[in-house]
Specification:
- With 379 residues, this protein is mainly alpha-helical.
- It folds into 2 domains: 276 residues, no CATH class; 84 residues, no CATH class.
- It has 15 helices and no strands.
- Helix 2 crosses helix 5, helix 5 packs antiparallel against helix 13 and helix 9 crosses helix 12.
Length: 379
């Protein structure tokens, strides 16, 4: 049974407003809402969609929201879920960009994040615990997860880890007798990652809304990886090649994308506002997020048809385990930065207990963390 579009819109507007902490935290909050509370998806279905997002370029948590919307509301749900997840963050970032242009500095957000970050760690831990039990189904997958964690810690590229884990599971499945199935399905599995990078202009051009749109469309079409990878793309285009931004402006834009709720890719909204005002913000946001809708629409059509293949199922199992391993490593890194004193330690432990024992909605915990952070800094 399909979910009413209004319910899909309400959920993702809420998540887009309170989902601090980056993709790992966004995924954890989505799992809490759509698997635990609303039971819109099983854990296995959720993991399949998470694995599928790692096979295509673009912002993973936004693409996961789009997948969930498509599964629960068809094509209308696909558009509504993605747009509602992006809209609150874009509006918040645009307001900050307005203040930045007017006053020349970023508004103070450190006090709020001081209390929110440890709560986010607890939310992610809860999601990892539940998803891990669904993904780590065999000793082989457990071993693969450990290998993926070690590879991430020593600095192996995250894309290599994800596709490597999928390839290992495919090889094991073929060795176990899946050769005939592999010839018909491996091509379909690779569709999401086979898009050729779009060419970038090689000459300096004056600022304009269409060139701005084209640059962000290119970035959204070819970028795999974290916000640090986004930083490299943005610096190459806007600072080094076009000279539209200074180094300081770029770092401020990335900082805003990191500390505001919702997708980190709303960094584009900030840059668009700096360069072209409100219309620049709209054009930049459309450019960087549009490919995510296209890629999810394409992969969403293929996934139900191919995921029951033994070989594709094995590949998705490997990708799912690798994705959770990367999420675990990120969580440890975030925890080291978030838990810095006894107040933040108490926030993390209490939040974890409330989530695991009493199933408190994560939105209320995020709000409580913001209040604790602001109050502590004032005192």
């Amino acid at each position: 049974m399909k979910t009413p579009i209004r319910d899909i819109a309400t959920l993702f507007l809420k998540l887009g407003t309170i989902a601090f902490g980056g993709p790992a935290a966004h995924i954890a909050m989505m799992e809490d809402e759509v698997v635990r509370r609303r039971r819109w998806l099983s854990r296995e279905e959720f993991l399949d969609f998470l694995g599928a997002t790692n096979l295509i370029p673009g912002p993973n948590s936004t693409e996961l929201a789009i997948h969930i919307g498509h599964a629960r509301g068809g094509w209308r749900g696909l558009i509504v879920a993605g747009a509602c997840f992006i809209l609150p963050a874009s509006c918040i970032v645009s307001a900050i960009a307005w203040a930045y242009v007017r006053f020349g500095t970023l508004p103070e957000v450190g006090a709020i994040l001081y209390g929110v970050k440890p709560v986010v760690i607890a939310v992610v831990f809860q999601a990892l615990w539940g998803l891990g039990r669904a993904a780590l189904k065999t000793r082989g997958l457990i071993a693969l997860g450990i290998i993926a964690v070690v590879a991430s810690v020593v600095g192996v590229n995250e894309l290599a880890i994800i596709f490597g884990a999928g390839a290992i599971m495919v090889a094991l499945r073929i060795a176990a007798g899946g050769k005939r199935d592999a010839t018909t399905n491996l091509g379909a599995l690779a569709v999401g990652s086979a898009f050729a990078p779009l060419g970038a202009p090689t000459v300096v051009v004056p600022f304009g809304l269409w060139p701005l749109f084209a640059i962000f469309l290119k970035i959204g079409s070819v970028l795999f990886g974290s916000g640090y990878v986004l930083l490299a793309f943005l610096r190459a285009d806007f600072v080094e090649r076009l000279h539209w931004l200074t180094e300081r402006q770029l770092l401020d834009a990335v900082a805003v994308g990191q500390v505001t709720p919702g997708p980190v890719f709303t960094t584009a909204t900030f840059i668009g506002y700096l360069l072209g005002g409100p219309w620049g913000a709209v054009i930049a946001t459309l450019g960087i997020f549009l490919p995510a809708f296209v890629f999810v629409a394409l992969s969403g059509v293929l996934l139900p048809r191919i995921k029951h293949s033994p070989v594709v199922r094995a590949a998705l199992d490997g990708v799912n385990v690798a994705s959770l391993a990367l999420m675990a490593v990120v969580t440890v890194e975030l925890a080291r930065a978030a838990v810095v004193d006894w107040v933040t330690l108490a926030c993390a432990l209490i939040s974890c207990a409330l989530l695991v024992r009493w199933k408190i909605n994560s939105a209320w915990l995020v709000l409580a963390g913001a209040i604790v952070g602001a109050t502590t800094r004032l005192l």
